[in-house]
Specification:
The chain has about 140 residues and is an alpha/beta fold. Helix content is about 55%, strand content about 10%. The chain has nine helices and five strands, in the order βααβαααβαααββα. It has a five-stranded parallel β-sheet. The chain is globular, with a radius of gyration of 15 Å.
């Protein structure tokens, strides 16, 4: 299943051992093909102090572990050049300006966006699913 992952989902998986983390690191029986934007790393850097405090580690450890989680989860970061033709449409679709990069990836990959951010569901162009909804979908695939 192809999904775009937003920063809030990744951050939640990073901060504590959770269902989200298990979903990111599970390869079977139904592997998730995850995509995101380079913007996710900018957001991680921007919120590094808060995230490090919540994870009870220092900022350098946080950034290293964030990259390790992205790599272990096989999250493909789609380059800005590939997304450039979707930038304008994503800006129109996204309920908030700072979420437009995730919508650009979803439009480019023609897939759903995995986010627990309720306002993102207020548009009708990209299907946004929560972790709870993803679990239900995966359960129905068994």
């Amino acid at each position: 299943m192809d999904l775009v992952i937003d920063a809030n989902v990744l951050f939640a998986a990073f901060i504590k051992n959770s269902t989200t983390r298990r979903l990111l690191l599970t390869k079977t029986p139904t592997p998730l093909r995850l995509y995101t934007t380079p913007f996710i790393l900018e957001e991680a850097y921007k919120y590094r102090k808060l995230l490090a405090r919540k994870a009870s580690i220092n900022e350098n450890e946080l950034m290293g572990l964030m990259l390790e989680l992205v790599s272990a989860s096989n999250i493909e970061i789609i380059g800005k050049d590939e997304l450039s033709r979707f930038k304008e449409e994503a800006a129109k679709v996204s309920p908030r300006k700072n979420d437009a990069p995730y919508f650009a990836v979803a439009l480019y990959k023609k897939c759903r966006l995995w986010s627990n951010d309720k306002p993102l569901k207020s548009q009708g162009s990209v299907v946004v699913i929560t972790t709870k909804e993803l679990l239900e979908i995966l359960d129905n695939m068994k």
